[in-house]
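Chain A, query sequence.
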Amino acid sequence: MSEPLDSKVCIPCQGGMPSLSADEAQALQAQTPKWDLTDNATWIRRSFSFGNFVDALAFVNAVGTLAEKEGHHPDITFGWGYADIALQTHKIKGLHENDFIMAAKIDHLA
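Chain A, predicted structure.
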């Protein structure tokens, strides 16, 4: 059995690498079932709900700290009671295993 995504570390991704195929992305998405594949399987997204602004902000700050540690940065939109997170490996304009690693680690923060 392969190593769980949340125990892996993001590896630096170079431009010019192929992005995951839709089938490969769906296979990894099965390990992060709360995330949705969007835009022809070139992004994964998830919405998080909170009881107030302070909790949403604390979550976003925790995600930011994790992103710096992993060297892999999501797109985040947040406000009172919510945080929306989208992941894509921008250098390849698609998904890489790193995106799913981050998704699994963000799930643990929620």
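The helical segments are 22-29, 53-70, 97-109. The chain has a mean pLDDT of 92.
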